[in-house]
Amino acid sequence: MAKWLTRGAEVYLFDEPSRGIDVAARARLYELFEELAKQGKTIVIVSSDLEELFETCDAIAVMSAGRMVTKFERNDFSEDAILEASFAGQESKRTTAESDDRWQNEEATP
């Protein structure tokens, strides 16, 4: 990580940044995020840890089934709403697949 921080990028992507680290290291990592934000840097955090997202993010975009389904601003953060949104894409994907199957079956019927 230190190597990338010295490059002076404008955008940083962290994928599951606190997985497998202790509480003290996690605190230092969150301080780093705060410092980067104060410098005007954009930080994208991919995480399945809602507590981490609630603590570090100004906005949370929820992806499901390969697409972004919604975005929450800090005032709208809610575990229930985020979990519901994360499954919405799966439901949409299933509904689309069922429609595709019906269309293909109708087309195959003489």
From TrEMBL:
Region (Disordered), start-end ranges: 88-110
MF terms (GO), sorted A to Z: ATP binding
Keywords recorded for this protein, A-Z: ATP-binding, Cell membrane, Membrane, Nucleotide-binding, Translocase, Transport
Keyword presence, Lipid biosynthesis: no
Entries under InterPro entries matching the protein: ABC_carbohydrate_import_ATPase, P-loop_NTPase
Biased composition (Basic and acidic residues): 91-110
PANTHER family: CARBOHYDRATE TRANSPORT ATP-BINDING PROTEIN MG119-RELATED, D-ALLOSE IMPORT ATP-BINDING PROTEIN ALSA-RELATED
Name recorded for this polypeptide: Ribose transport system, ATP-binding protein
Species annotation: Rhodopirellula baltica WH47
